[in-house]
Fold this sequence. Notes:
This is ABC transporter ATP-binding protein. By secondary structure, this protein is α/β, with parallel strands linked by helices. The chain folds into 2 domains: 3-216, Rossmann fold; 224-286. The chain is 32% helix and 28% strand. The protein has 10 helices and 14 strands. It has a 6-stranded mixed beta sheet with strand order 6-7-8-3-9-10, with helices on both faces. A 4-stranded antiparallel beta sheet has the order 2-1-4-5. Strand 9 and strand 10 form a beta hairpin. The chain is globular, with a radius of gyration of 21 Å. The two termini are 34 Å apart. It binds adenosine-5'-triphosphate. Adenosine-5'-triphosphate is lined by residues 12, 14, 16, 18, 35, 37-43, 160.
Amino acid sequence: MQLTISNLNKTYSNGVHALKDVNLTINQGMFGLLGPNGAGKSSLMRTIATLQEPDSGSISLGNINVLTQKEEVRKTLGYLPQEFGVYPKVDAITLLNHLAVLKGITNTTERKSVVEALLHKTNLWGARKKNLGGYSGGMKQRFGIAQALLANPKLIIVDEPTAGLDPAERNRFLNLLSELGENTVVILSTHIVDDVKELCSDMAVFNKGEVLFKGSPDEALNAIVGKIWEKRISKAELSDYKNNFKVISEKLIAGNPIIHVFAESNPDGTFEPVEGDLEDVYFSKIFA
Ligand SMILES: Nc1ncnc2c1ncn2[C@@H]1O[C@H](COP(=O)(O)OP(=O)(O)OP(=O)(O)O)[C@@H](O)[C@H]1O
């Protein structure tokens, strides 16, 4: 099963061109869609999830036409939206059971076993009788994955799932995602480079509605070899450097900025070459 997005466009009524001729082919496995806030990631995710219409273009999932065969897509889709609302006064096992009914798992015995297995998988079994209103952010996200996995989806979309999680919960959540089947198309939309670095075999960098890079993280890293230059400067020099060079990142170390510049050769002969990482790829695309 492959997800193919062709020439997708969307302009909202306020004039924002949120998707600009987007073309992507997404294979089974974990695909990272990396971009800053406002890049258009949620617009793309919601369109694939059949929740909004594009102005033009096409999307297919295997031989399903996503834009016209919405019911077919919904049967095989697991979706964790950016704002996943839960009913605060309902406990996890009751809500998951209810959502399983809505997903069409009507056989009581089968439903009980699916719901219980998912609560174990997401490490929520011990908290299954607790009201969702009392769940932490990480627990809510894990519950979100449990509901997304009901009915064995072939396509799973998780939109910015780690934003706001503390490091321990984020790790737990990423481990959970990494266990999702090889036989599933999983799209992870995020603005956190490390999420992609740790999990994804394939990725795209997305900004202002456009795909700026697509390929594997290794291909992305190969493309910047020899082009990332580092220098420790003083704070007072920072604005000059920003005016004169393509500064893609700045980090304060002991109060002084260390800058990374993207350039084909040593910018003014005073920089040190560094091995770039995925963050350098991301910022070099975003600030191109
Ligand atoms: N329903 C809407 N009506 C008008 N403009 C919208 C609507 N939804 C999104 N936008 C605009 O479209 C652009 C892309 O938004 P989108 O939410 O898809 O980006 P994103 O990459 O998911 O970012 P974020 O993480 O901030 O949600 C933004 O400029 C946003 O303000």
